[in-house]
């Protein structure tokens, strides 16, 4: 009951964090990678042994190509994404990789492709959100009192926006300070966070639904508060285990997956917070708002 008793404090924390995130995004913007703003894609394959990714990244730093994204392909190849390069810069890039590297393909990615990718990413988020609302409304159709089933879905979407906006705001700051670029893995991470976050929220909602059905508690507030008490330990323990593994990937993993791992880490942390400290208190606010009408 502690969380429901102090629900205004927890909701206020979320509102402040989302507001700060929106401010960071508006002020700093996001440093888009070549997947969104266009660039060049070079694929090479080594005849013998492929060098470590860190070695390739160090060789490319000596060139004036800005930030390069190096990703392994197969057993002996690498995919290298850079800004748009001239023929001379392209030849210097291949030469810097060593005589053992053989170029398999070279492709220029136009900005129009990036715009199309951004449009599809936004469409994916909208479709996923609508799917979540309809699915939760259907699953909770037998629990229409004191809060309608579709409002469970609406609250879940509010928490999802919370879980996405805060990590994106964090990355806006990182983009400004460290030049971190947003690529397609970032979009994949966002969609993954959506799935993980709604899963955690559904666990709490399902316990609330079950306690409403059996009628062990007198008021809706008591039902929500005790439902949180019954599941929060498991939710935090599960998320903490995943976060520890992701932090290992952040600090010790390859550079190409750091943004992906950092986004998932932030998403898991704030997703766990929202499922316990935001989603359920919002249900109580909705119920009280209905009562006051």
Category from helices, strands and their pairing? alpha+beta
The CATH class assignment of the largest domain is Mainly Alpha
- Could you please say which CATH topology of the largest domain applies here? Multidrug efflux transporter AcrB transmembrane fold
Report the uncertain regions.
Answer: none
Radius of gyration, CA atoms, in whole angstroms: 23 Å
CATH superfamily of the largest domain: Multidrug efflux transporter AcrB transmembrane domain
Work out the count of structural domains. 2
Query: Which percent band covers the strand fraction?
Result: 5-15%
The number of helical segments is 11
Helix content: over 70%
How many β-strand runs?
4
CATH architecture of the largest domain: Up-down Bundle
What do the pLDDT scores average to? Answer: 82
Order of helices and strands: HHHEHEEHEHHHHHH
Largest sheet: 4 strands, antiparallel
Task: Tell me the overall shape.
Answer: elongated
Strand ordering within the main sheet: 2-3-1-4
End-to-end distance, in Å? 25 Å
């Amino acid at each position: 009951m502690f969380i429901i008793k102090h629900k205004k404090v927890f909701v206020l924390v979320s509102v402040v964090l989302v507001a700060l995130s929106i401010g960071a995004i508006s002020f700093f913007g996001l440093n888009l990678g070549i997947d969104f703003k266009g660039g060049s894609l070079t694929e090479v394959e080594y005849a013998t042994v492929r060098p470590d990714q860190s070695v390739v990244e160090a060789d490319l730093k000596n060139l004036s190509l800005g930030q390069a994204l190096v990703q392994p392909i197969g057993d002996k190849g690498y995919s290298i994404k850079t800004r748009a390069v001239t023929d001379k810069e392209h030849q210097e890039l291949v030469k810097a990789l060593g005589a053992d590297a053989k170029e398999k393909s070279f492709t220029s990615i136009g900005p129009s492709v990036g715009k199309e990718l951004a449009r599809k990413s936004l469409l994916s988020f909208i479709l996923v959100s609508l799917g979540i609302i309809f699915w939760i409304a259907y699953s909770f159709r037998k629990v229409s009192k004191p809060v309608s089933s579709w409002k469970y879905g609406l609250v879940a979407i509010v928490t999802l926006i919370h879980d996405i906006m805060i990590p994106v705001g964090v990355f806006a700051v990182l983009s400004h300070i460290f030049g971190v670029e947003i690529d397609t893995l970032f979009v994949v991470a966002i969609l993954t966070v959506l799935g993980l976050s709604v899963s955690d929220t559904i666990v709490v909602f399902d316990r609330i639904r079950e306690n409403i059905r059996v009628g062990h508690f007198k008021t809706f507030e008591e039902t929500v508060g005790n439902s949180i008490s019954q599941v929060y330990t498991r939710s935090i323990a599960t998320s903490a285990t995943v976060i520890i593994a992701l932090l290992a990937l952040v600090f010790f993993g390859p550079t190409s997956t750091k943004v992906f791992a950092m986004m998932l880490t932030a998403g898991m942390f704030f997703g766990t917070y929202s499922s316990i400290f935001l989603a359920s208190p919002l249900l109580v606010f909705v119920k009280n708002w209905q009562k006051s009408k």
